[in-house]
Structure formats: structure tokens, C-alpha cells
Amino acid sequence: MDYMPGTASLIEEIDKKQLVVLRDGRTLIGILRSIDQFANLVMHKTIERIHVGKQYGDIPRGIFVVRGENVVLLGEVDSEIESQTDLKLEKVSVEEILLAQRRQQDERAEEMRAKMKALKHRGIAIAPNADQTEEAF
User: Fold this and answer.
1) pLDDT in tens, 86-120
2) Would you tell me which of 56, 64, 82, 124 could form a disulfide with 119, CB atoms 3.0–4.6 Å apart?
3) What is the Cα–Cα distance from 102 to 91, expressed in whole angstroms?
4) Rounded to whole angstroms, how far apart are CA atoms 75 and 78?
5) CA torsion sign, 121 to 127 to 130 to 135?
6) pTM (2 decimals)?
7) 55-66 sheet: strands from edge to edge
């Protein structure tokens, strides 16, 4: 097929299983059903896959509409390779993966607070962003 500029080149990807990485870091896997000129996506039978270490969990999301500006990566999922990957990672329940994700976020936040405290002790002040609280300083 001839070259098609922009999102028109994604027409060939419709009705195929796709992996989408969003700007906020979430990973979605589902069947691409529709796309427009702004790269807005409609995905069907969508799951949100969460990875923590060597574990992963899938949260069913159903039909999912993604605004194009939030898409970082879009690619077709190869079923054969996906089944081989499952051998290296342990699938756990939704509750387990959410708990593991929360623990990982808490550990990262604690590390950030320790770094900020060490920097402040050395006279370097960094303005907090929306994710950081004043308590970190």
C-alpha cells in the first residue's frame, strides 16, 4: 500500500490487538476499532496492564476512548510473542497487583522525600510540584 501521511497510516491497524502507552504511564491492550484525524482512539475489549517487578495484573476496562494527545506509543500485539512473555512474568490477581503498585509508589515517594531532605540540608531548594507535599521539605 502507498504511503499515507499522519493518522491515516493507522487504518491498516483497525480490528487488530494493539498496545497503547499513555502519557500518564498506563498501558492499555485492546482491539483498535476506530481512529480519527487527531489520533483519538476507540478500543474494544480493553484491559489495563500493570507491571510491578516480575508480576503483572490485568484490569478489564471494556470500551475505552483515548484522546490522541495522551498517546505516547501504539503498536500491534503479536499473540505468539505475548504468550512467550507470560512465561517470564507471573500473572497475579487485580487486588495483588494494585497492592504491589501502591507499595512501589510509596517506596518511590519515600525515596524522593529523602532526596529532597538531603538537598535541603545542603542548601539546595527545589520547588515542589503537584505530586510532592510541603512535608517533603
Assistant:
1) 567 888 888 888 899 899 999 999 999 999 988 88
2) 124
3) 17
4) 9
5) positive
6) 0.72
7) 71-76, 17-22, 27-35, 41-52, 55-66, 90-91
Q: What is the grid cell recorded at 2?
A: 502507498
Helix (H) / strand (E) element for 7: namely none
Cα–Cα distance, 11 to 3 (Å, whole number):
12
- Strand segments, DSSP code E, in the chain are 17-22, 27-35, 41-52, 55-66, 71-76, 90-91
> 51: how many CB neighbours lie within 10 A of its CB?
14
* 6-123: in CATH 3.10.350.10: no
Element (H, E) at 120: helix 94-121
- All cell numbers assigned to 52: 510491578
Q: For the chain, what are the domain ranges?
A: 6-123
